């Protein structure tokens, strides 16, 4: 299952919503993982979402990994799972006027600070 070319796409994959400065600047992925995402991400996303039917044993296995029916073994599968885990994590937002539980700080508490 190390046939990288089975997943290679003619166009490069970018995720400007979750990685606006690129995969390589996120500090999450190795260079080889960034290359895998750029080169194979279009096909991998299409396979995962069902926009492209799997062609061959490697792609069928990849779909099974995405559906949780198999464990990721190849570098392509592991990289895609790592990418999916990163984009599925909720980002914690901090606001000066909100407490960690999401409630607003009472105005009298803010007045005491000034």
List keywords for this structure.
single chain; 4 helices; 114 residues
Description:
By secondary structure, this protein is mainly α. The chain has one domain (about 5-114). It contains 4 helices and no strands. The N and C termini lie far apart (about 65 Å).
Summarize the structure.
By secondary structure, this protein is an all-alpha fold. The protein is 44% helix and 0% strand.
* Total domains: 1
What is the number of helical segments per DSSP (H or I, 4+ residues)? 4
Q: What general outline do the C-alpha atoms trace?
A: globular
Going by helix content, strand content and strand pairing, the class is mainly alpha
What is the radius of gyration computed over CA atoms, rounded to a whole number of angstroms? 20 Å
Largest sheet: none
Order of helices and strands: HHHH
Strand content: under 5%
Could you give the count of β-strands?
0
The average pLDDT is 84
Unreliable spans are none
Helix fraction bin: 40-55%
Distance separating the two termini: 63 Å
Topology:
Elements: H1 31-49, H2 57-66, H3 75-88, H4 107-113
